[in-house]
User: Fold these one by one.
Assistant:
Number 1:
Amino acid sequence: MHAMSENSSKSQAVRGTQDLRGSMASAFRHIDSIASQLSELYRFEELKTPIFEHSEVFHRTLGETSDVVSKETYTFLDRGGDSLTLRPEGTAGAVRAFISNGWTQDLPCRFFYSGPMFRYERPQKGRYRQFHQIGVEALGLNDPSADVESLSLAHDLLLKLGLKNRFKLHINTLGDLESRQNYRKTLVDYFTQHKAKLSQDSLVRLEKNPLRILDSKDPGDREIIKNAPQFSSSLTPQASEFFQQVLSGLKSLEIEYHLDPLLVRGLDYYSHTVFEFITTDLGAQGALLAGGRYDGLVKLMGGGDVSGVGWAAGVERLALMIESQFASQQKPLVAVLAAEDSAINYCQKISHLVRSFGNPVELITSGNMGKKFKRADKIKSQFCVVIGSKEMSSKILTLKNMATGVQIEVGVEGLKKTLES
Ligand code: HAM
C-alpha cells in the first residue's frame, strides 16, 4: 500500500464527490422511493447489478470514441490483473446481467435500478464524478408503444416530483441502421468540405464516428453544425413510420414534446427514438433525464436479437430541483428545552408524544438557558416548549410560536390540536 503523501489528502473528499446530509439526503430518498413506486405500477422490477464490471462491458457498448469511454471511465487492474471499470451508467450492466443470467427465456424483461455511477468529468453544479442515477430498461419489446410507455413513466416521475412546467421533452430519431448509413455518407461529405475549420476532436470523430460531431460543444464546430444536413432526409420509410407512431402515442397521452433534430446523445448504442428532459433551472447541466432505444446492444454484447429501450435520470439534478420545496413539506419542528436536569425525563416523554403526532422534535438539554434558546433559533424550530418543575407539576405547557412570539398555555392533552392549528 502507498503511504499517504506529505501533503495529506486524508481529510478531503475526492474531487467531484459529495457528502450528503439533511434535506439533500432526504430529497434523494424521496426521489428513489417515488421512482420505485411508479416503476412498479409500470411493471418494472428492481435490478441490482455490481458497481464494477469487466472493462469490456463498457468499452464495446458505449463506444470507444464516446467521451464517457475515451476520457471518463475509472478503470483499474484488480489484484488478479483483471481490468475492471466502475460503472459510468446502468444500461450496459443491465444488459450484461440479462445475458449472463440467461434471462433471454423470460422476455419481455422490465428493470428499474438506482445507484451510484462514476465518470471522470470536470465537476460543477449538477455534474459530479460520483453521481446517482435512477433508470429503467425494457428488453424484448420492439414496437413503438414500449418507447411511449417508457416516456410516460419518465413524465409521470417528473410530475410526481412537483416539476410541472419546469422541464421540456426534446425528442429525435436516429433511425435504423440503413438510415444511419445513408446519413453517415451525407455527413462525411458535408464535414469534409469544412475540414479546415473543425476542432481537433471532431477531426478524429470524422474518421471514427462522424455522427458524434453533432454533439460537439466547440463554438467553431457549432457554427458548422448549424447548417449540417438534417437526418430526417436520410430516414428509411420504416424508421420514419416507427417515429411517427411514438409521437402519436405521446400526443394521445397529452405529453408535450419538442422535435430536436440535433439531439444525438453521447453514447453509441442508440437507434430509433432518443430523448432528453431538459430544464433551464440548473445552468449548463440541463439534462434531468435522458435515454432512448438501443436495438442492437444485446446482440453486440453477445446476446440474441433483443431490442431495448430505457432512460436514466440524474438524482443530484432532480434533488437540486426539489430540495427547497421538499424541506418545507415537513410538519412544524418543535424544540423541547429542559429548564433543569430533573425535568429531562419528563421532557423525553413530551418529545416522544409530539413525535407520535408526526412532528420532528429536538430535545435540548445542554448548556445554560441562553445557549438552549440559541440552539432553538439556529435549528429554525417553529415552536418551543420550556419544561421545568412548574410545568411538571401543573401539566400545563407553554408553547411559543417562534415566528410570531405568541405564547399559548396548553394542557398536555391539547398539545396535538394546538400544533395542528
Ligand atoms: P446519460 O445521458 O449519460 O445516459 O445520463 C443520464 C442522466 O444522468 C443525465 O441526463 C444526467 O441527469 C445524469 N448524469 C450524467 N452524468 C452526470 C454527472 N457527471 N453528474 C451528475 N449527473 C449526471 C445514460 O446514462 C444512459 N444509460 C441512459 C439510458 C438508459 N439510455 C437507455 N437506457
Note: The longest strand covers residues 109-118.
Number 2:
Amino acid sequence: MNMNTKIYKMDAEASDEVMLAEAGEIIRKGGLVAFPTETVYGLGGDAMNPSASQKIYAAKGRPSDNPLIVHIWDYSQLEEIAATLPPEAKKLADAFWPGPMTLIVPKNDRIPYETTGGLDTVAVRMPSHPVARDFIRLSGRMIAAPSANTSGRPSPTTADHVWQDLNGKIEAIIDGGVVDIGLESTIVDLSDEVPTILRPGYITKAMLEEVVDEVRIDPGILSENEKIRPKAPGMRYKHYAPKGDLTIINGSADAVVSYINEATAKAESEGKRVGIIATEETCKLYTGGEVLTIGSREDEDAIAHNLYGILRSFDALGVEIIYSESFSTPRIGQAIMNRLFKAAGHHMIDV
Ligand code: TXA
Ligand code: MG
C-alpha cells in the first residue's frame, strides 16, 4: 500500500469544481479522498461501497467495529438511508444543518454493515464547509468519512496533519486550509426514546434543548468508571492521544503554574523533555519546558481550534511529558475537556 497521494489545493470559500470533479471520480471508483469540513478533516469513501469502507479502516488502522459517519449535502439523502425518522430529526436538521452535528438513526439496507461497523443504526452529518458540500454533491455519492487521522492520533485540522498520517495510503487530499472549529461534531443519538448526546461538540446540550424537549448525555462519556461504557464505539478507545504522557493540572491559576513549574524542573533534572499547554494569561509565568500557548482563557473558540494542532506539535518536538492547564469554559468547555481527558487517559491532578 504505497500510492502517490495527490493534493488538490483550493480556497475554502472558492471550490475548484474541476479538481472536485476529479476527486469525485476517485470516490466513484472506490478510492479514498481526504477533505476539509468545518470541524476536522475527514477521510472519505463511497458510503455504499463496502470495499471503500474497508479501505478506510485499513488506511487509518482503525478497528472495523468502529462505525463511520455518512456525509450528505441534502436532507433527502437522510430519508434515503434511514429505516425510520423520528420527528426530532427534521427539527434538529432545520436548526443545525448544515453544521457540526451528527444524527444517529436506524438504517435501511442501502447502507452496508461495513460502513456502520455492523450496527443497525447509521450516523449522518451534513457539513457546512463549502468545499465539503461541493465535493459531496459533485461526487454524486454519500461519503463515509471518519476523521482523517491514524487511529489514536489527534484529529487533523490542516491538510498537512492529514499528510503526516496518510501520505501514500490514500489517493488524494483536498487542501482547503485550516478548519474552523477544530473539534469533531456533536453526536446526537435519535435511535432511543430520548435524544442522547454520545459525543459533546460545538452544538451544546442547551442549544439542542431549544429545539427538542428533552436531551440526555450518555452517562458513559461523563463517568470515569470504566464499567459504564460509552455508547459510541469510538468514545471507548484511548484517543486523541499525543505521544508524550499528558497530565491535566486543575486549580487556581497560581497553584497550577507553581505545580507545573516544580514538576517540570524535577523532570528536566532527570533528563526528560517537558511540554506545557499554557494560555496567553499564564505563558510568561513558566520557567522551563517547551511552552505552547493555546489562546486566551477567555476565548474558548481559540482553545478548541488550537488543541489538536498543539498536541501534534508536541509529538514533533519529541517531548516525553506534557502538562496542561484545565479549561472550564462556559459553552464548548465540555467538548474541550472531553477531548483533553481522553488525550490524558483521564489523568488529572487537583492542586
Ligand atoms: O466532525 C466530525 O464528526 C468528523 C468530520 C470528518 O465529519 N468525523 C468524525 O468521525 O469525527 P469519526 O469516525 O472520527 O468519529 C465518529 C464517531 C465514532 O466515535 C463512532 O464510534 C461514532 O461516531 N459512531 C458512528 N456511527 C455510530 C452509530 N451508528 N452508533 C453509535 N456511534 C456511532
Ligand atoms: Mg476520529
Note: The pocket of threonylcarbamoyladenylate (ligand 1) is lined by residues 37, 39-40, 42, 66-69, 102, 104, 116, 119, 121-123, 125, 145-147, 184-185, 187, 198, 231-235 (CB under 6 Å).
